[in-house]
Model the fold of this input.
Amino acid sequence: MKKYTFVFVLFVSVFSAPVYAQTGGNETYKFLNLPVSARGSALGGKLFSVRDNNPALAIMNPSMLNPSMSMGTSLNLVDYFSNALYGHLNYIHSFKNVGTFDLGLQFASYGSFQGYDIYGNETGKFTASDFALITGYGKEFVDSMFSMGMNMKWIFSKYENYFSAGLAVDFAASYYSRPKNLSLTLLIGNLGTQFKTYSGIREKIPLEIQLAISQRLKHLPVRYCITLQHLQKWNLSYTDPTDPFATIDAETGEPKQKPKWRQFANNLFRHVVFGLEILPVKYISLQLSHNYDVRQEMKSIEKPGMTGWAYGAGIHVYHFDLYYARNHNNLASVPNHFTLSVNISNFLKDKK
Done:
């Protein structure tokens, strides 16, 4: 049974998040890197720096917690691969002269599996899931130009009879220019440790440093978003030994290395995620993004398709925000992301 469970755990650790061959595989709790909202997923699935009252943004960017989000709640659900399902639920409340707090739950359920022993005999079904209880805090300074925030994540994971627990912290700092409608955020995410291992082997938590900038243009209904990802590591490139189109060195039999300038450009663009948010009218928004690193790691050599692209739309009706997104992380399956957000305080104001 342990043999088959080990294969399953390896499968989950690889596919429980968008897979990057050079930035994953040596870490656990990869579900922490899954996009926390449809809007964020449509804009590349990484750090999203924008200041508004959307409560779904607070889980990934706690420095954007502000009083306008108070009594806001959001629910994010994703129909992931096969029978897998993941999502987020959070509630925000602000206290005068103290700051803004966020309480959230992040979960991922991978479905039910049939177990077998080493002889092929059925041993019964088992399940696998990950959970994180998140508490966040954000505070504004200097007339709301600067803000800081942090998330504390209590992590629990159970695969068949294997259980693990850990603790991770996010630290974020943001700058916001109201006249230019520009936001800038630096995030150190998932800084922590695994204090209860699955089987006695301690694994790393997926630490990542990101820098994001966004700005709504003054004379166009467009907001651009640029995220620099994996800043803790420069070299994200990978040479695929099975690539049939690779140029082989006749003497060594190994694939030839690309020129230095091409290697530099390839690594540079792997760190960059581009996104656009179009706001044609007050109640509708459209999102589009491209992640070069995902495209290079996950595309099929014969048919790259739309791998690395993501898109979505949002509808704002009454006090509800509904977002939908599709993120092309590979050709096998394209998950559907749904996020519903509402601010309860707006209903109370209407009642008064």
Summary: Helices lie at 2-15, 38-42, 260-270, 292-298, 344-351.
